[in-house]
Design brief:
This protein has 18 helices and 38 strands. The chain is of the alpha+beta class. α8 (about 415-420) runs parallel beside α11 (about 465-485) and α11 (about 465-485) packs antiparallel against α12 (about 490-500). It is globular, with a radius of gyration of 26 Å. The protein starts with a helix and ends in an 18-residue tail after the last strand.
């Protein structure tokens, strides 16, 4: 158990009024009066390799105010890690759970005296103004973060609007020069500043910009920042592209406080100014904090669970919270945004989003969104992707800050687009979707030229050939379904044929998907446990054990490649029981959360436990899903077994804890697992309520004895999207003994919608 978890379990630290701390013991009987936001712990995932941040943001908000430790390293990609205790400031843009580091932009820090500033210094150990802190003074709630800065004694609090970060600083009475440092040149990980500017605007306002290049090739942030006190002095130091400044105030109010609000835009200072006009005019910090909490409460009320398991409830609501941090609002208060073509555009009639981690989030984040988020928000996600297509000629792969990073394999906008079209999300042009899909699939980049030529990617023609082939084949199935939806039979047949690209890679002798050469032979030597990271490998962030199961579009077709269903089940068993040792010269750090060779800490494994449902052994799905729920998640900073990846790790937990999961995310079918809550109410986007009951559920009773939908017995272990959105009640009767007949002969449909 981490230090912070020990502390937070014994104390509830609350910053109120003048930000003096008071402690109260959290009593069990208070649970009934708690709000859902009280069950969220933003520190979950800030330890180990979760890569989350504890700071303040709104659902899909454009601003994330969070502490920045100032360390370059894999575990600091969000700007923060629970193992650290030193701050360089608080940033306004952060990534949640990614594997690559960028952002941490617009770093500010309140201070109590004037400092010597060196814009060239990027080593936090040499900065004169860093602040120590202890986790016992940190408070993190949805939409709010606070910490006491030990060197200066300042209490720093922050909350957010949609495009504005709000700050309140309580200074010690003996502060010599109540002030704030803004460091526009400081950079961590992949980020590097290319241009900065800052100037005074009026008696209590500064404006500026920070342009940078990193994972996001052309990142632009413009800002305007207002203070509750007039500026007494401003000292700006600049060297080359790097700028740092200290803003000294004319004093503090009668509570020793200064408040500030920073509006941002990717286009202009004017856009940042309008954000302040819309969100920060005459604002009260406490009211803004309450407003953020209320917005989060409403977002969390989309799913209400009933359980006696306090730990599971905390994990669940934190997971639901994390599933709603990305994508982030990118168009500014004027509707303008910096596009992927590096030009300025205006989002007409929709909000333009960015930070689409599609290799991860197509699996569960977006399917969850289609159930509980408004059709308008889901349509905006899709129309953002179509705008990206208009700007670049192809659909996004991994977009960040209005840039295409081209990170990861496949083109997984396809299942998100197909899912939205097939679920009849309003506000989407299906013909335009197909046009964008087809154009993207016909390009020659990203090894698609050889994929189109051979029907798969030969191992001697492209790296990570197995993963790429399997993912393109699935994505092409998604294109086929949209073609069928709009009545294009020729394209439907063409893409259904492309979706069979997985078949040439299956080796009947080893029963693994393997790299195949242009001469038809399988690549040698072969070790299914070998997991080289991105080089000299046929697999992306994994190995043959983990990637051989990625045939989401045709699970039955995958089963048919084996001698029998029993052989398929035996191979699945082998995955979970094999040694967890990974081999190779450069083992991928992303492979974590191992149960045998099953790696829950990385997304390619996420659907695998549910494949038993398709092969006549659904009770094994129930066993494995419950084991994953119990062992791969916790209510500690180390409670996420791998990179959070913009909500995917959390969305898996949300779905699986409810009792079902979208194995094929574009199919509209959810395979049953093992629910953990006595009851859950899902408030769907169309106003219906879908209830899930699990009678006699316990840590021992993990098996589904029987299941009914609206009182009628089901002989299948799956449910459709339409059934969920119609509303009603799904009731599981749980037992400590497996029912080896239920659902055995009625597997989830495969290769159809």
């Amino acid at each position: 158990m981490s230090t912070i978890n020990y502390i937070k379990k014994s104390l509830a630290v609350l910053a109120m009024g003048s930000s003096l701390l008071s402690c109260q013991t959290e009593m069990p009987q208070e649970a009934e009066t708690k709000k859902l936001v009280d069950y969220v712990d933003p520190f979950i995932g800030t330890g180990e390799h979760g890569h989350t941040f504890p700071g303040a943001t709104l659902p899909y908000g454009g601003v994330q105010c969070s502490p920045v430790n100032g360390v370059s390293g894999w575990d600091w990609v969000s700007g923060y890690h629970i193992s650290d205790s030193l701050l360089v400031g608080f940033g306004h843009l952060h990534l949640s759970g990614t594997g690559i580091g960028d952002l941490n932009d617009l770093i500010i820090l309140p201070t109590d005296k004037e400092h010597t500033l060196d814009p060239k210094e990027n080593d936090r150990a040499k900065l004169p103004y860093t602040e120590k802190y202890t986790h016992s003074t940190e408070v993190a709630h949805p939409g709010y973060y606070a910490v006491t800065l030990e060197n200066s004694g300042i209490r720093a609090e922050m909350t957010t609007g949609l495009r504005v970060g709000f700050h309140r600083w309580t200074y010690p009475a003996n502060a010599k020069a109540p002030s704030m440092i803004i460091n526009l040149g400081y950079a961590t990980n992949w980020d590097g500043v290319t241009e900065t500017a800052l100037s005074e605007k009026g008696k209590n306002t500064i404006i500026g910009k920070r342009l940078s290049k990193g994972w996001a090739e052309d990142q632009r942030v413009y800002f305007e920042m207002n203070f509750s006190r007039d500026i007494k002095d401003i000292k700006i130091e600049k060297s080359g592209n790097r700028l740092i400044a200290q803003v000294v105030f004319d004093g503090v109010d009668n509570q020793n406080q200064v408040t500030a609000a920073m509006g941002i835009s990717s286009v202009s200072v004017e856009g940042a100014h309008v954000a302040l006009e819309q969100e920060a005019k005459g604002y009260s910090f406490d009211l803004k904090r309450q407003a953020a909490s209320t917005i989060w409460e409403k977002a969390l009320e989309q799913i209400k669970v009933t359980t006696t398991d306090a730990k599971a409830r905390e994990i669940f609501y934190t997971a639901l919270y994390h599933s709603k941090i990305a994508p982030v609002t990118h168009s500014d208060a004027l509707g303008e945004y910096k596009g992927a073509d590096h030009k300025i555009h205006k989002a007409e009639g929709f909000t333009y989003y960015s930070t689409f981690s599609l290799w991860d989030t197509f699996r569960a984040v977006h399917p969850l969104s289609t159930i509980i988020e408004s059709q308008k928000r889901n349509a905006d996600f899709i129309n953002t992707m179509l705008a990206h297509y208009d700007e670049t000629g192809v659909l996004p792969v991994w977009s960040l800050a209005g840039n295409e990073t081209n990170c990861m394999t496949g083109y997984h906008a396809m299942p998100v687009l197909a899912d939205a079209v097939l679920k009849n999300i309003k506000g989407i042009d299906a013909n335009r979707v197909f046009e964008a899909m087809q154009a993207t699939s016909l390009q020659d980049a990203r090894d698609l030229k050889v994929y189109k030529k051979y029907g798969f990617i030969p191992s001697d023609k492209g790296g990570e050939s197995v993963t790429k082939t399997l993912e393109y084949a699935y994505d092409d199935w998604c294109i086929a379904q949209v073609a069928k939806h709009i009545g294009n039979e020729k394209a439907y047949q063409q893409y259904m044929k492309r979706s069979e690209g997985y078949k040439p890679l299956f080796d009947k002798e080893t029963e693994f998907m393997r790299g195949r050469l242009t001469n038809g032979k399988f690549r040698l030597p072969f070790d299914p446990a070998e997991a080289n990271h991105r080089e000299n490998t046929d697999y992306t962030e994994g190995n043959a054990y983990q990637h051989s199961w990625f045939v989401l579009q045709d699970v039955q077709g995958l089963i048919d490649l084996f001698p029998s269903k029993e052989a398929f089940v035996a191979k699945l068993d082998e995955l979970f029981t094999a040694s967890s040792e990974l081999t190779g010269d450069n083992v991928s750090p992303d492979i974590s959360g191992l149960i045998g060779q099953y790696a829950h800490g990385n997304e390619p494994s996420h659907h695998i436990a549910y494949l038993y449902d398709y092969a006549g052994a659904p009770w094994k799905t129930q066993e494995k899903v419950r084991e994953i729920l119990e062992t791969q998640y916790d209510n500690t900073p180390e409670g996420i077994s791998g990179n959070e990846d913009c909500g995917q790790m959390s969305a898996w937990y949300v779905f699986s804890s409810l009792g079902f999961y979208p194995v094929n995310p574009a199919q509209g079918i959810y395979a049953f697992g093992s629910p953990i809550f006595e009851q859950a109410e899902i408030n769907t986007s169309n106003g219906k309520v879908f209830k899930v009951e699990a009678k006699n559920v316990s840590k021992k009773n993990i098996y589904i004895k029987s299941v009914t939908l609206n009182g009628k017995a089901l002989d299948r272990l799956y449910i459709t999207h339409k059934e969920i959105m119609t509303g009603g009640t799904l009731t599981f009767e749980m037992s400590d003994k497996p029912n080896k007949e239920l659902g055995v002969n009625t597997p989830p449909p495969s290769n159809t919608i």
